[in-house]
Amino acid sequence: MLIPGCIYIFINNYIPMGGLMIAFKKINYRIGILHSPWVGLKNFEFLFKTKEAWTITRNTILYNLTFIVIGTVIAVGVAMLLNQIRQNGARKSYQTIILLPHLISIVVVSYLVFGFLSTESGFVNNSILEPLGIAPISWYSTAKFWPYIIVIVAIWKSFGYSCIIYYATLVGIDKSYYEAAVIDGASRWKQMKHITLPGLKSIIIILTLMSISKIFYSDFGLFYQVPMNSGALIDITNTIDTYVYRGLAKLNNIGMASAAGFFQSIVGFVLVILANYIVKKIDEDSALF
Amino acid sequence: MVDNSKGFHVLTHFIMIFLAIFCLLPFALLLISSITGEDALIHNGYSFIPRAIDFTAYKYLLTDSHSIVGAYGVTVFVTVIGTVTNIILTTLMAYPLSKKELPGRNVVSFFIFFTMLFSGGLVPSYMMWTQYFHIKNTIWALIVPGMLLTAFNIIMMRTYFTSNIPDAVVEAAKIDGGSESQILTKVILPMSMPIMATLGLLVGLSYWNDWLNGLYYVTKDNLFSIQVLLNKMLLDVQFLMSTASSGMGSDLSAKVPSTAIKMAVAVLGVLPIMVIYPFFQRFFVKGITVGAVKG
Predict the structure, then answer these.
(1) Residues 6+ positions from A107 with CB-CB distance below 8 Å
(2) For residue A66, which of A192, A207, B190, B244 sits 20 to 30 Å off, Cα-Cα?
(3) How near does any CA of chain B get to the CA of A96, in Å?
(4) Single pTM value for the model
């Protein structure tokens, strides 16, 4: 029974791990990957001499940190609000609606963004800026707005998902704590500070550490498709994933793409191990392994 | 405390309604723009007020355009085949692993689990699938790479088997002379419908929404799934914009689908999700919470 699945996992997951060695090779398709000559650390030397190496690392980490901080605050806040709502129907409707953005593909998200920001026919240029007498903005070629746009889009898409996880934890907090607190005359603020937040503490820490362990990875579509692969935005939207893709598919610079990919895999792996180690220190049961 | 309670609840609803609108507005813009007449769109841009209702975009897409119908076909095929295969493979992995007496259980578990920690990444995977499996421009490119079996789903299903199916049930079936495959199909599966439905929906959704495999491995347009088609059409807009600014856009714009059609295709891409989602909402929510707690 186990054989078909194990074969698939071996091919799909383990062979590419071995394939990481191409970061140390100069690939020549004609003689094949295995016979291509070894070049030692050459690919890495080239990669780290470029300006992009710094840009993509900085972008990937800074965007992820922003998502973690803002995303957590909003998701926890909304989960608490949701928990305050007594009407079942209303609560369920809110839950359904805020999860919706999570279910659609990033390609469709890029259409939604385009509907607002398109230079000629976008809603913002035509229906907000024009009545105010402001000249239309060419959004897809103005880099300074994009850090905000990327963050808003990312939060819009993901806050419902983490909110549901936090809400599920909140529902599990024993109601008698709150009853006792009300009898003691604790205000809503005090209840939140002394019951709700401590109840959420361990799940917040776990989800945050999970995100930190993925800090070297980014949602390819968010950084490639949503800014429509616009050249003017590349400095501000290039992450390790988009860099690897462009190196592979557009520039045919396999050496650098594989070096960047290798860098991502190894550092990502170290971060997962580290994050798990820390989770284990805080709460044995929540550790991944 | 009791006095301000009502005000507090009104405020809570107020914030939640605001958030709900924030989540829904972009979809409204998409939908309304797709049924607005082309002239109105060119004049006023995408807008929440449909100045001239016009279904031409949909008529064009569903009758005159082969690509959209074809892409729908590809997506449905890939979603169905991919989801069924995925669930079968996941069950075949998860069931033996849920048995404590299985020899080498820990080794296999680690073999699966390690793929969650470490991966070769895009470049080696791409080379393997294209150079050795020659998967480029075949329908399998949309089904096989990366998505057929994931460690996460195996672990979720195994956890369900171990915690929701009592050993006594399996023991009883064994005493009655059932073989392992009979036990799996006649006893375990009927008891596992909730997890099958949850995983099936999540896997189906990821196949429906997948465009990366299409982007990496497919260049022939008869193999475009709906998401890949959407991706290509948006890049064409960009192409149009960049050429229009250098003064050669006029004859190109006749070929590229018009402003309303772009939004109409996107609507067709999300419509099935929007339609089924409210009915299966609880499965999605369950999938997320179970995955987060047990994963």
Answers:
(1) A221, A225, B209, B211, B227, B230, B231, B234, B269
(2) A192
(3) 7
(4) 0.87
